[in-house]
Design a protein that fits this description.
heterodimer; A: about 260 residues; alpha/beta; Rossmann fold; six-stranded mixed sheet; 10 strands; about 35% helix; globular; B: about 325 residues; mainly alpha; MetI-like fold; ATP hydrolysis activity (chain A); PstB-like (chain A)
């Protein structure tokens, strides 16, 4: 199920503005890849281009190649809707559908795929996904209550459950813990460890300890210079990145001597 | 409220006095509107209540107040509902087009044109409806009467002038279109990006995204918009008076020569030659319309408040 991603010569634009230039990287299947770097350097932009969410913004476009298991993501024959069904995403702020119950939130993606499902089948998916997101024990008695009634950390895990319910190949996470308290953060980090046996995970984070804790590989993004587009400075195994990075800028950023 | 000292820059807290002045202005504005509403109500009550008990011939072709106003009220609601049935799908479609489908270069002009519709005086719509639209609709109504005659609404025989309650409903629909469109467009455009992206990231098409994120968010706003449109349609006078040659009858037939009158159009067309007795009857019907519109608005608020409570839990 999990797939690897190859990115080559990726340039990302907002209208005429070149936001990110020349990204080349390989994201391994069944591993966690973290993107770190200062604000505004294009980490989230690159992440969003991996499931074609980038182009949702008017005028936004992408040049270059992204291959998922040998299939080009930006091939004209590829429907972006189909891409997003296979590459799930979790956002910075938890965003369960406010009018839906916990149960319906988990099934939202499956219902979009418009398969008619039996009640038993639905129940099974809900339980499996909520267990997968470590939320089942907390919500199993109130599945029909609104998802908005949960705490922030629970809502974020609900969003993860919703994303994994459709069994995607890749799970993208855009600073999934930045709106959460340390306990919820730790719950989600544990979850990421468990999920990586099944999914390819890419996570953007501002928290370098978090990158060090959860990821196998880390990519460091930075602006080339003030006013210049962002770029991938270095990508390496996380252990190496945090002990002995190849690039001086990486070391400066990681050790806090940045700028 | 303001004093001559105002021009002198005072050192000791200037913002507080500004606050007080503004609070006073806002409070008096609020009180004035309440007083105006109360004054209208009192006028209608004082002048109208005698109209409930007048000699039978005043209520011609009927003989007492309740059936008289009942039939007018029926006509009012009927015409307004026809207008809503026609206008709401169009208005929501236009609003969605502007907020989510149209390219930006197109969205702004379309929104502008729809807003312009609201600036056309209602008497112009009435003239257009009676002189231009009604003759055009003759053949449509004849077709409806011929092929859909088994539905009570189109029982016919179709009017040869086209001046029917259906035509009036179409005119009313065009008149309430801008307000429904404008309000729902604003609400649609305010849908949180977060919810839209949540749906898109799950692989929703644009329409699915609208169903998942936009409509649930906008539900209470749509109800408000529709209710405002309904309020406008209920009270609209000239457009209906000019299109319909109406009589107080109760019929569901939308395309025949006998058309139910509405309260407002009845007042407008009978006002000029009314005797004092008839006048008080007309004002009493006005009071009924006032109370009815009030009740509709109240009901709408209740619906909106309830659905909001449900979502916020």
């Amino acid at each position: 199920m999990a797939k690897s991603i190859d990115v080559s010569d990726l340039d990302i634009y907002y209208g005429d503005f070149l936001a990110v230039q020349g990204v080349n990287m390989t994201i391994k299947a069944r591993s966690v890849t973290a993107f770190i770097g200062p604000s505004g350097c294009g980490k989230s932009t690159v992440l969003r281009s991996l499931n074609r969410m980038h182009e949702v913004i008017p005028g936004a476009r992408v040049e270059g190649k992204i291959m998922v298991d040998g299939q080009s993501l930006y091939d004209p024959s590829i429907d972006p809707v189909a891409v997003r069904r296979q590459i799930g995403m979790v956002f910075q702020r938890p965003n369960p559908f406010p009018t839906m119950s916990i149960y319906d939130n988990v099934l939202a993606g499956n219902r979009l795929n418009s398969k008619r499902m039996k009640k038993a089948e639905q129940d099974a998916i809900v339980e499996k996904s909520l267990r997968g997101a470590n939320l089942w024990n907390e919500v199993k008695d109130r599945l029909n209550k609104p998802g908005m009634g949960l705490s922030g950390g629970q809502q974020q895990r609900l969003c993860i459950a919703r994303a994994i319910a459709v069994e995607p190949q890749v799970l993208l996470m855009d600073e999934p813990c930045s709106a959460l308290d340390p306990i919820s953060t730790s719950a989600i980090e544990d979850l990421i460890h468990e999920l990586k046996s099944e999914f390819t995970i890419v996570i953007v984070t501002h928290n370098m300890q978090q990158a060090a804790r959860v990821s196998d590989d880390t990519g460091f993004f930075n602006l080339k210079a003030a006013g210049q587009p962002g770029q991938l400075v270095e990508m390496n195994a996380t252990k190496k990145m945090f002990s002995n990075p190849d690039n001086e800028a990486t070391e400066a950023y990681i050790s806090g001597r940045f700028g | 409220m303001t004093t001559t000292h105002e021009t002198e820059p005072e050192v000791s807290p200037p913002s507080q006095r500004g606050d007080r002045i503004f609070a006073g202005l806002a409070k008096s504005a609020g009180l004035v509107i309440l007083a105006a509403l109360a004054a209208v109500f009192i006028f209608l009550a004082v002048e109208g209540i005698p109209g409930v008990n007048q000699p039978a011939e005043t209520y011609a072709p009927l003989s007492s107040f309740l059936p008289y106003v009942g039939r007018l009220l029926f006509g009012t609601v009927f015409a307004a509902l026809i207008a809503l049935v026609i206008a709401v799908p169009f208005a929501l479609g236009i609003a969605l087009f502007i907020s989510h489908y149209a390219p930006r270069v197109l969205a702004a002009p379309v929104a502008y044109v729809v807003d312009l519709l609201a600036a056309v005086p209602s008497v112009v719509f009435g003239l257009w409806g009676a002189r231009a639209l009604a003759p055009q609709l003759v053949s449509v109504q004849a077709w409806l009467g011929e092929h859909l005659g088994f539905i009570p609404f189109f029982a016919g025989p179709a009017s040869v002038t086209g001046k029917t309650v259906l035509t009036a409903g179409v005119v009313l629909a065009i008149m309430i279109l801008p307000i429904i469109t404008a309000i729902s467009r604003e609400i649609f455009a305010q849908t949180p990006r977060l919810h839209e992206e949540a749906a898109l990231a799950l692989g929703a098409t644009r329409w699915e995204m609208i169903r998942y994120a936009v409509f649930p968010y906008a539900r209470s706003g749509i109800v408000s918009a529709v209710m405002l449109g309904l309020g406008r349609a209920l009270g609209e006078t000239m457009a209906v008076a000019l299109v319909l040659s109406a009589s107080p009858v109760v019929t569901l037939n939308m395309i025949s020569n006998t058309n139910p009158a509405t309260i407002a159009s009845n007042i407008a067309s009978s006002f000029a030659e009314a005797t004092p007795a008839k006048l008080s009857v007309l004002i009493a019907t006005g009071l009924v319309l006032f109370a009815f519109t009030f009740a509709v608005n109240f009901a709408a608020r209740a619906v909106v408040a309830r659905s909001e409570r449900k979502f916020s839990r």
